[in-house]
């Protein structure tokens, strides 16, 4: 089994110290699954437990975090000789989703297999299903997303069996248009 400092890797990938007094055992909710059926905890292929697992396509992304944002679609119309604009809220834009994670190989070798799996998710024309406790709150329907950007981060430490990555995704809702 590989020997590495997960706190050091966390600091390199996310840019800040992990909470010192944080304990998964203390933070566990009483339920095992969210109200929408997603697990609060999962184990990676090496048996290590982590909180709020993210599944993209059929791939479990261990040691990953998710951030979701959205903007309203607003048409602004300037009024002659009046300060400001009239705003018409026409809807909501697609959700912008950022996933940051760490690809780790437990055999103390470069995580080539893990990075290859991530790259395979980025194939052209592919819509993926995103499932996570947090994403389930925001995404509805089929939970479809499209990866718009994938970045393999350069290592900031001497650890060679773990590599940080970032993904940018957009929600991809399915609509049925009716002609009349």
C-alpha-based Rg, rounded: 20 Å
* Domains, number: 1
CATH class: Mainly Beta
CATH fold descriptor:
Elongation Factor Tu (Ef-tu), domain 3
Helix content class: 10-25%
Query: How much β-strand is present in the residues?
Result: 35-45%
Instruction: Give the ordered list of helices and strands.
Output: HHEEEEEEEEHEHEE
Q: Please name the CATH architecture.
A: Beta Barrel
**Ends apart, CA distance between termini:** 64 Å
Shape: globular
> How is the biggest beta sheet arranged?
7 strands, antiparallel
Structural topology:
Blueprint: H1 6-14, H2 24-27, E1 41-43, E2 49-51, E3 54-56, E4 59-61, E5 64-69, E6 72-78, E7 85-92, E8 96-104, H3 112-121, E9 128-131, H4 133-138, E10 144-152, E11 162-171
Antiparallel strand pairs: 1-2, 3-4, 3-9, 5-8, 6-7, 8-11, 9-10, 10-11
What's this, in brief?
This protein is an alpha+beta fold.
What characteristics describe this protein?
180 residues; alpha+beta; seven-stranded antiparallel sheet; 11 strands; globular
What does this protein look like?
By secondary structure, the protein is an alpha+beta fold. The chain has one domain (6-171): Beta Barrel (Elongation Factor Tu (Ef-tu), domain 3), CATH 2.40.30.200. The protein is built from four helices and eleven strands. The strands form three sheets. The chain has a seven-stranded antiparallel sheet. A hairpin with a 5-residue loop joins strand 1 (41-43) and strand 2 (49-51). It is globular.
């Amino acid at each position: 089994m590989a020997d590495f400092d997960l706190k050091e890797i966390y600091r390199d990938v996310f840019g800040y110290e992990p909470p010192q007094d944080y304990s998964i055992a203390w933070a566990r909710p009483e339920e095992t699954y969210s109200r929408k059926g997603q697990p609060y905890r999962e184990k990676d292929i090496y048996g290590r437990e982590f909180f709020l697992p993210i599944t993209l396509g059929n791939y479990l992304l261990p040691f990953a975090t998710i951030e979701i944002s959205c903007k309203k679609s607003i048409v602004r119309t300037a009024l002659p000789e009046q300060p400001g604009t009239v705003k018409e809220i026409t809807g909501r834009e697609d959700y912008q989703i950022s996933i940051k994670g760490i690809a780790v190989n437990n055999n103390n070798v470069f995580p080539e297999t893990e990075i290859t799996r991530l790259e395979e998710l980025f194939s052209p024309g592919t819509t993926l299903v995103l499932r996570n406790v947090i994403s389930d709150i925001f995404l509805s329907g089929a939970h479809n997303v499209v990866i718009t950007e994938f970045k393999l981060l350069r290592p900031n430490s001497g650890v060679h069996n773990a590599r940080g990555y970032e993904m940018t995704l957009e929600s991809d809702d399915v609509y049925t248009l009716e002609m009349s």
